[in-house]
C-alpha cells in the first residue's frame, strides 16, 4: 500500500494565531483534535493549498469515518483545529465489562466488515457502543463552520492489535 496522508494522534506545534487582535506565536497542543487550516493558509501543504488542510476524522469499528477540510472560521475560533473523532462514552474497562469481543466480532462480520484482531477481548474495548456517533459530531462541526465535510467512508475492515 502507498501511504497518502499521516496524522499524529496528539501533537503540539508552534504556530502563529490571532489572540486578542494581535498576531502571536503560540504553542497549540491538540489532543483529541487535529489541524484544520483553510485553503490558502501558508502552513497548509502545497498540494492542498487550493482546497484546505485535509481533516481525517475516524469513526469507530462499525460506523463511518469522514474526510473534511479546514476553514477560515476554524482559524478564528479554534486556532485552526477541529475534532479528531467522536470521543468515548465508555472507558476501555467499562466496555470490556459490558461486552464480549466474540459478540463484537460476530456483529462486524455480519455487516461484511473484515476483522483482524490480536485478541477477542480487545475488540470489546473499541466496540461502537463505547463511542459517540461520529456522524453526529461531524454535523456539529460542519454546521458550526469549523470544518467542512467532503466525504464519508464506511468501514470495510478493522485491524485491532
- What's the alpha carbon Rg, rounded to whole Å? 18 Å
Strands side by side in the biggest sheet: 4-5-8
Q: What structural class should be given to the helix and strand makeup?
A: alpha+beta
- Give the termini distance in whole angstroms: 19 Å
In total, the number of strands is 9
The helix tally amounts to: 5
Overall domain count: 1
Strand content: 25-35%
Flag low-confidence runs: none
- Mean pLDDT, to the nearest integer, reads 93
Largest sheet: 3 strands, antiparallel
**N-to-C series of helices and strands:** EEEEEHEHHEHHEE
Work out the helicity level: 25-40%
Assembly type: single chain
Overall description:
This protein has one domain. It is elongated, with a radius of gyration of 18 Å. It has a 3-stranded antiparallel beta sheet with strand order 4-5-8, with helices on one face. Strands 1-2 form a two-stranded antiparallel sheet. The chain has a two-stranded antiparallel sheet with strand order 3-6. The chain starts with 9 loop residues before the first strand and ends with a strand. Helix content is 25%, strand content 32%. It has helices at 72-78, 92-98, 101-110, 120-125, 134-144; strands at 10-19, 22-31, 33-35, 54-57, 65-70, 81-83, 114-117, 147-153, 157-160. It has 5 helices and 9 strands; from the N terminus they run E-E-E-E-E-H-E-H-H-E-H-H-E-E.
Amino acid at each position: 500500500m502507498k501511504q497518502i496522508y499521516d496524522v499524529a494522534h496528539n501533537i503540539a506545534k508552534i504556530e502563529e494565531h490571532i489572540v486578542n487582535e494581535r498576531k502571536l506565536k503560540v504553542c497549540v497542543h491538540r489532543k483529541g483534535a487535529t489541524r484544520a487550516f483553510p485553503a490558502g493558509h501558508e502552513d497548509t501543504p502545497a498540494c492542498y493549498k487550493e482546497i484546505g488542510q485535509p481533516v481525517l476524522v475516524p469513526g469507530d469499528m462499525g460506523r463511518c469515518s469522514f474526510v473534511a477540510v479546514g476553514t477560515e472560521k476554524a482559524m478564528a475560533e479554534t486556532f485552526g483545529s477541529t475534532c479528531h473523532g467522536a470521543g468515548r462514552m465508555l472507558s476501555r474497562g467499562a466496555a470490556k465489562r459490558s461486552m464480549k469481543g466474540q459478540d463484537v466480532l460476530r456483529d462486524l462480520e455480519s455487516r461484511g466488515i473484515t476483522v483482524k484482531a490480536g485478541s477477542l477481548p480487545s475488540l470489546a474495548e473499541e466496540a461502537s457502543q463505547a463511542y459517540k456517533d461520529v456522524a453526529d459530531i461531524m454535523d456539529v462541526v460542519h454546521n458550526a463552520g469549523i470544518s467542512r465535510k467532503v466525504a464519508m467512508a464506511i468501514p470495510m475492515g478493522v485491524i485491532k492489535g
